[in-house]
Design brief:
Blueprint: H1 6-15, E1 16-26, E2 32-42, E3 48-52, E4 57-63, E5 66-67, E6 75-79, E7 86-95, E8 103-108, E9 115-120, E10 140-147, E11 153-156, E12 160-164, E13 167-170, E14 173-176, E15 182-186, E16 188-196, E17 199-206, H2 218-236, E18 244-250, E19 257-260, E20 263-267, H3 281-291, E21 299-301, H4 308-326, H5 330-340, H6 342-348, H7 364-368, H8 372-390, H9 392-405, E22 409-411, H10 413-424, H11 429-435, E23 443-446, E24 451-454, E25 460-469, E26 475-485, E27 489-491, E28 500-505, E29 512-513, H12 517-525, H13 533-548, H14 554-564, H15 572-589, H16 592-608, H17 613-623, H18 627-637, H19 650-662, H20 668-672, H21 674-677, H22 682-692, H23 696-707, H24 713-721, H25 729-732, H26 735-747, H27 752-761, H28 770-778, H29 784-804
Parallel strand pairs: 1-10, 17-18, 18-20, 21-22, 23-29
Antiparallel strand pairs: 1-2, 2-7, 3-6, 4-5, 4-7, 8-9, 9-15, 10-13, 10-14, 11-15, 12-13, 16-17, 19-20, 23-24, 24-27, 25-26, 25-28
Length: 807
């Protein structure tokens, strides 16, 4: 199918102005019947253009009552005829279901046989469902109706206006992009209904989950959404633009969650994550999606170069909103971001696919392929650095002005920067050029005197923590000073007098933190225990970057983590992140001969560590190595010898089985029981467990499932996720060539998100060698998404190989 170019989009926007869509879908028909009536206005007397339609089949298409040729390459060609400006395009088509969780998809519940249908048009699947002018800046009023089977409910962007027999008719939604059309239909159960000002919030899930433990947290999720709506409306000075906000949990969503006008769809796997007292991931995800009602829905990007606008702002604001909706300090919120999210940006900024946060893209496909870590995490980090530079109040006023100026339309980076410049009284065009239109990051370090050096000069304001050792060898922050950096070298008095200096203390800016030799020795001895959670997160991120750049041996990092776990003061996200990094250090960054010893050391450390019992148990389950440790896991699975206060929930059960299955010690009946014990993520976890087994027949079966175009995306990816297991290199040696000869050709025709994910999951990551790198370098996939994935994996493997060669 033809890929929309920016030049084509600009030309089409000059040719027409789209006024409205009337869309009808008949879900009782097989295939689904789709009828679209688009009203638009010609802007030029001799105009011609095209509409997109890529459905399973096309029954008819007319323009002002005159039949049109069937679409070529997914495009209906349109030309102005006659003297009137107004035009009506009508298309009737047949829409098919996709197993990849985008476009039109259907899920059959194994528990009761009920079916659920979802239409997800973001980012480019609208034409697979209805006829449209599929570009972000051609917004219009959408009216939607759907025929559903008996006993079904349906939620969509608008509110349910009326029922006409088996047809559900929804209220019009103004200023919506074609990519925003979304609906979910099926025999849902309503978990909770509440209000946030004038906006009604309703949470739904599939019927078979009624009464299950997994949905017990949904009233709390509803409260998060309600409180976030109220907080954003107050903080931004702009009321929620939608009178209703429906939240639906679905099993086949390709993303973790997605928010469009009036509707949030959430992947059910979020229900499989236990909501511990210190676990705020669900609250953070909810706050992020609610922010999209303003940034992404009320104001959207004009073209795909600025797709980052909604995602970065929503990520940034969700950290601030977390304090309001989950009762935590904003400092703790940013601590969790620093541990869990910011390293994703740092890694994305050192891969071959790195690019600026905002950069020109010539086609829609290029824009949709921008790296997740850059769009979300780096974008949010850069906005945080701007807040440190101009102040929180000026940042907020700029956002409010932006929403007011461009409500129910689209905008660009220049529009947003203009609003921030006006609010702050500073010309921020140069700042935007440095941070948003230039790729890469800056490393800051001390030069041995009282000066901070930037290897890539950028204007930023950072905190600098000065730490002294007391008589017991504990570090305490003597002072926190702030400095504005601009050039290559900035003098800050008094830095050399401290035992340890932490640059970018409090993580105000997006920058890599380098340590001088003395600070590195002191912080290593103290295992980064500096008395402040956010400052400590900065230190750990700095040391982890040293591991991934080959400057710090994985064994030394692992030792630091094990020592740190013995003391109090780590937030839950810190415990979880450091244990995960320690296991990764052992499995991927250390020489293979050290792997078993390091994993044993990590597992032993969790048994005597301070912290949340469940996080520590999960770390133990992920790292268990010796026969004794594995026997302990097997006992836990049977409910024996559990640590005080620990219960084996569904997530921990799956983690235990992953480890036992990888060693060939898991009982098949325990693996097969996962879907029954966990109706949300059990089927997915079962697929991963089966794939991890050290058995060629199991690997071959998982390989076939991962590459099957008929498997649901969640099952294919779960199978792929279990194939490559550290320690199984000899067993898997023959699959290296199969990746390049079988996987890459098979994935060419998949949707962009699916091919990107599977090409990374199936890459032979455990076969770390020059031979694998050479094979990757020699591969020439015909598809750009696959080329990027292979290049990234080869780059990461080259770093693994270099790190393993350290002595």
């Amino acid at each position: 199918m033809a890929d929309l170019t920016q030049d084509e989009a600009i030309d089409r926007a000059k040719a027409i102005d789209v006024e409205s869509y009337d869309i009808f879908l008949d879900l009782t028909a097989e295939p689904v019947l789709s009828r679209t009536e688009v009203r638009f206005r010609w802007l030029r007397p001799d105009a011609s253009t095209f509409a997109e339609l890529r459905t399973l089949g096309v029954r008819s298409a007319t323009l002002d009552g005159v039949s049109l040729p069937l679409p070529e390459d997914g495009r209906l060609r349109l030309s102005r005829a006659g003297g009137g400006d107004q035009a009506v395009l009508v298309a009737e088509a047949e829409a098919g279901y996709s197993p990849e969780g985008r476009g039109l998809s259907r899920f059959t519940d194994p528990a009761d046989g009920a079916s659920y249908v979802m239409a997800l048009c973001y980012p480019d699947c609208g034409p697979e469902v209805f006829c449209c002018f599929d570009q972000p800046d051609l917004t219009a009023t959408f009216r939607f109706a759907v025929r559903v089977p008996d006993g079904w409910e349906c939620v969509a962007n608008g509110q349910l206006a009326r029922r006409e027999g088996d047809v559900r008719v929804f209220t019009p939604v103004s200023g919506m992009q074609p990519l925003g059309l979304t609906f979910c239909a099926g025999p849902f159960s309503t978990a909770v209904r509440t209000r946030a000002g004038r906006t009604e919030v309703t949470v739904r899930h599939r019927h078979s989950l009624l009464g299950q433990t997994a949905v017990a947290s949904l009233p709390q999720f509803s409260d998060y959404a309600r409180d976030a709506i109220a907080w954003y409306a107050d903080m931004l000075g702009v009321p929620c633009p939608y009178p209703a906000y429906d939240i639906v949990f679905m099993p086949d969503l390709a993303a973790v969650a997605l928010s469009v006008p009036g509707l949030m769809v959430v992947n059910e796997k979020l229900l499989g994550r236990p909501a511990g007292a210190g676990d705020r991931r669900s609250a953070m995800i909810c706050a992020h999606e609610v922010a999209h009602l303003w940034f992404g829905c009320l104001v959207g990007e004009r073209w795909w170069d600025d797709v980052w606008l909604g995602e970065a702002i929503a990520t940034y604001l969700s950290c601030a909103a977390l304090a309001a909706i989950a009762g935590v300090s904003e400092s703790l919120s940013w601590t969790e971001f620093a541990y869990a999210d910011k390293p994703v940006a740092y890694q994305a900024d050192e891969l071959p696919s790195r690019e600026p946060v905002s950069s020109p893209v010539s086609t829609a496909t290029q824009g949709r392929g921008k790296p997740f870590g850059i769009l979300y995490m780096k974008g949010a980090s850069v906005i945080r650095s701007l807040a440190a530079l101009i102040g929180d109040d000026a940042l907020r006023r700029g956002l409010s002005d932006y929403l007011t100026r461009f409500a129910f339309s689209t905008a660009t980076l220049d529009d947003l920067v203009g609003c921030w410049s006006l609010a702050s009284g500073q010309d921020l065009a140069g700042w935007a050029e440095q941070w948003l239109r230039t790729e890469g990051t800056t490393t800051i370090r001390l030069d041995g005197t009282d000066a901070v050096i930037q290897d890539v000069p950028r204007r930023q304001r950072i905190g600098i923590g000065l730490y002294d050792l007391d008589g017991d060898g504990q570090l305490h922050r003597r002072s926190l000073v702030h400095a504005e950096l601009d050039g290559e070298r900035t003098v800050v008095a008094g830095l050399t007098s401290a035992d340890a200096v932490v640059l970018n203390d409090q993580d105000l800016s997006y920058t890599r933190t380098g340590f001088d030799a003395r600070s590195a020795r002191v912080l290593t001895a103290a295992a980064c225990q500096v008395g402040d959670p956010l400052s400590e997160a900065v230190c750990w991120n700095g040391f982890w970057l040293l591991v991934t750049s080959g400057e710090l041996p994985a064994a030394q990092f692992t030792d630091m983590v094990c020592r740190r776990l013995q003391a109090d003061g780590l937030p839950e996200v810190g415990v979880e992140t450091l244990l995960s990094r320690a296991v990764e250090a052992a499995d991927a960054w250390a020489p293979p001969r050290q792997r078993a010893g390091l994993r044993e050391q990590i597992a032993d450390a969790t048994r005597t560590a301070a912290g949340d019992a469940r996080k520590l148990a999960t770390g133990f389950a992920a790292s268990a190595q010796t026969d004794e440790q594995l026997a302990t896991l097997d006992a836990w699975l049977a409910g024996k010898d559990l640590p005080d206060g620990l219960a084996i929930d569904t997530e921990l059960r799956a983690r235990i089985l992953f480890t036992l299955a990888a060693r060939g010690l898991a009982r098949r009946e325990d693996i097969d029981a996962l879907p029954r014990l966990d109706p949300v993520t059990g089927e997915v976890n079962r697929a991963t467990c089966l794939a991890t087994q050290p058995d060629l027949a199991a690997k071959e079966a998982a390989w076939a499932v991962a590459l099957s175009s008929g498997e649901p995306a969640r099952i294919a990816q779960a199978s792929a996720a279990g194939i490559w297991v550290p320690g199984q290199e000899e067993l898997m040696a023959g699959y290296r060539d199969r990746y390049f000869n079988e996987v890459l050709p098979a994935l060419v025709t998949r949707k962009q998100w699916s091919k990107s994910r599977l090409s990374r999951l199936l890459f032979p990551v455990t076969l770390v060698s020059e031979a694998t790198i050479e094979a990757a370098n020699a591969a020439e996939p015909s598809d750009n998404v696959l080329r990027v994935a292979v290049a990234e994996q080869a780059t990461i493997m080259r770093r693994h190989l270099a790190a393993r060669r350290q002595r």
